[in-house]
## 1
Amino acid sequence: MKCRICSSDRTQELKTIEFYQGYPWTIYDCKECGCRFTRYDPAVYNLLHTLPGSRYGDYHQIAGECQLLFSQRDLNGIRNLLGKTSKYRFIIEAVESFKDTNRILEIGCSRGYLTSFFILAGYDAIGADISEEAVQGAEKAFGSHFFQADSDAIKSRSPYDVIYHIGTIGCVEDPLGYTRRMLGMLRPGGVLLFNAPNLDACVLEGQLWLSGAPPPDVVTLYRKGFWTQQFHDSALIEESVEYCDSATAFTLFTQRLLRRRWGNKQPSPIAGGKPTISLAERLFSRVDRDLRRFAALTGIARLAPLQPADFGLFVKMTKK
């Protein structure tokens, strides 16, 4: 099995896991590039966008809230709403810190809510997504600023000052080729911004994947340093790691101290709904809640070692 990311033969098959019913995916490690990966299925993204009960249902909700604020021309309202989430705050703060920035592209824009902030702020901003359903939803909410990811309009508008994407790099088939194409559409000195799923967040014993980012949606996990290693010749790279809140870090630390092994839960329906939960899983959930409550009351959580957040690998590439 060749590595889907770097084409190396130095891969190791780990195990087949099934987060969603009917979607067993085999997990691999690459000893060459350090990524963990599984196979890619492009059809799943439009499916997830068209199922209101899927994990993508949250995108419908946040898009609806942003649509209302957008119609009221409430830029600060959108900023405050999106700023509650670190990955959106990272993009907004970074873009606003750049001088001479106007032309912006979001790749993997979902239903357009983050792009809507920059449209309302007066930037020449557009969004693109692989899902036709997502693009149609974005256009309906925020106007004709959105395109399918393979549209000729995307490349014809280049070069861009800033291109960004949120978590999308965990979902694409060819991350290196994808990033090269993004850099190719930037002007010299232009900036590519994104966050990536962090393999170092798999901290429990035996943990194979991020429970909050299951395949067939997220299909690649990365480590800090990967982007610098791969792109230092063509861009100035800054990589930073976001860490979990203290209560979560304390819970993970105690689980590791007790040598609790990671185990994939019973598969859930991809359309949404709750999986069957075993008695042991219910007991562990209760213990986790009690630990969080104890840590909050005593302040002991502050003593726990830092733990990387699932999607907290933030990357800034400035094109040379």
Note: The longest strand covers residues 308-319.
## 2
Amino acid sequence: MDKKNICLDPFEQFRLWLHDAQIADIPNYEAMALATATRDGIPSVRMVLYKGIEHEGLIFYTNYQSRKARELAMNPHAALLFHWEKLERQIRLEGTTELLSRRASEQYFATRPRKSQLGAWASKQSSVLESREILEQAFQHYQKKYEGKEIPLPEFWGGYKFLPASFEFWQGRPGRLHDRIRYHKNDSCWRMERLAP
């Protein structure tokens, strides 16, 4: 990686690397680690699925009652990580989050497989379950309730937009002399710099 031959726009570079991961036939190439933290700075991390870019924001969806959503409500700062071992590449992002509109969430929810829609209704994500049977019974309840009907978006489920303040593109190199190029937002402009591995 050289600053002379990579995109000046980090979103364009992101799209190129994501496309490379897709055509390299990497399973779940769109999976990303999402790190959140409480108001007191206690972190947690989990994998979520990247669902596109909208107005310079990366989109993902979740249950608004989940731990991640509760933490984002207290502290909108978050970090993302894409890692593609086969390509020896990763992209790190830091920024803030905001809720997507209900309309955007409804449009996406309508494209989900029916079982995933029912699962969203059945699961009180991150809550303690006394048994697996309780979850399966809830799923069966909603399966009967919406049999032959369109499944609406739950009030407690929807999307987020992650607004990056920085991107770091990491390319593995021999001798652990890896390439690291960081883009940092300064007002409305992106500044590019190389970091030591």
Note: The longest strand covers residues 157-171.
## 3
Amino acid sequence: MSGDAPPVIEPVGESKRPRWSVMIPTFNCAHQVSETLASVLDQAPQADEMEIVIVDDASGDDIEGVAARFGDRVRLHRQPLNLGVPANLTEALRLSRGHIVHLLHGDDLVLPGFYRAMEQAFADPEIGAAYCRQIFIDQQGTRTGLSPLEQSEAGRLPDAMRFLASEQRIMTPSICVRRAAYERLGGFHPALRCAEDWEMWVRIARDYPIAYIPEPLAAYRMQQASNTGRNMRSARDVFFNGLAIDLIRSHLPPDIADRTAAAARRTYAGSALVTARDFARKGDIGGALTQWRAAVQLDSSAPTLLSAARSLTRIGYGALRRIFAA
């Protein structure tokens, strides 16, 4: 796994390039892409300053019809075969021509002022990436939560590599990255079918300062059809979190690598136990037990094992209630 190198992102061989590339990966979400595009176009500069490209991963819906409604302002690239999320993200990077790249999934949104705030952050010529606080929304667009406030003032994030390595804190729509950073570090790691973005942000933080914007200016849509959601019942999400932690550990200095990786394993084992309880409440005992097993495989520390024992009691109680109710 760790022997696989990230895919290469070649430099752009053009002298006249846009400042921004807004690359919109899509897969069977044509019904939501218009809203995503509108959130960008409401604040976008001229076409020579910002290219907007839909990168569709061989969807079965009418993404062509959606793109056509926006005329020449939006370009569509369709993959001939389905690549999967990480590879499609990497292809989006390769297709980008701008100096700053924003990967914005076709079901997510940006709020007014997003690109203006990002421009201010990238006025610091040394930063490799900037991200803002993010809002969580459901499938209908209703606000369901808000990410924690990392710091009250906009600016560089102190000790960003260690901070970001401990837990996934950045949802993809909220972050913009210099294309030069991707050219230096490569695309999304091919071994990761989930958590590919987390590993990427830590990789960038290893080599570049990261800027933070405290205003919530991006919205991430939580839904079961998302890449993470599709992998939850099989606990593949937990498996790939473990792979990502191993890769992230290899990016860290030896004096903090083991401690940070162990803390991350406890965090995501705890998250898996919460997911197991959620499955049990819904009567999905198979999904609950799969997440429970993945949790104890990810982390066998005493605190996790104690929590797992308590969680198993709740899952068992839920199973008995389901049996007697049938």
Note: DSSP finds twelve helices and ten strands in the chain.
## 4
Amino acid sequence: MHLRLMLMPVSLVFALCLSSAGQAMAQADREITNSIGMKLVLIPKGTFTMGSPENEQVGELSRELDEPQHEVTISQDYYLGVYEVTQAQYKKVMGENPSSFQGANVAERDPQTGRVLKEIDSSNHPVEMVSWQDAVKFCQRLSELPEEKKAGRVYRLPTEAEWEYACRAGSKKAFSFGNGVKSLSDHAWYRENSNLQTHPVGEKKPNAWGLHDMHGNVGEWCSDWYGEYPIGAVTDPVGPREGSCRVHRGGSWFFPEAARCRSACRFGIIPPSGHIDDTGFRIALSPSGVPK
């Protein structure tokens, strides 16, 4: 034993050991990996300004009218998937892969003849062609896996407020990395660089909280119905009680305008049963295991 430890009272040595163990546990809990290999990172509770300022503009496009700024408090820590749910993960839980971008649709082809030059493994591409209902069912089935039940984990979709809070990662700019459009290609797959298809998750730079592809690749379902934001400061908003379309967030491989990839940009045009090839999802988890 180190001489300094030998000279310390036993109670103090024990306290120091407990403190070190606690710190190690806290460090480990900042990121978890579940039974099918999905990584989630702890998002700390806090207060932020949701929406965009009236003068926010990226390129030739100004912000949308459905983005009024308002103060939102997220009162509890929560976990969010580091990556969008992949085709392989979806198939492992649901037994099928509905994605458009697999097989021949992602193969490398001769630009002149169209002949397939190389097959591409799309298992690590984000799943798409999944409805909001499909995404919710995935969360339910994932929660029912034996190891997940044993760990007390109940998965869900993030609320729209949780999604934007995590996307911003403390940023008040148009993007999590600032306002510069030139940097978007370093962080996102969108029409400018996507070759009009999805790409493996995690290839672009993460935001300050370690989340990848928040600004592109595929749009992501949130739990909320789409509707007007509340007026004034709110805590843990969950959206309107009813509606016709569910919110999806984040840019995608499809959008040609960088402005559509902004942190505050919202989409509410797809009903819960709708499927589209540029929309997928990522999972959320409350530390207690109890969904909101």
Note: The helical segments are 3-7, 10-29, 87-94, 132-144, 146-151, 160-168, 184-187.
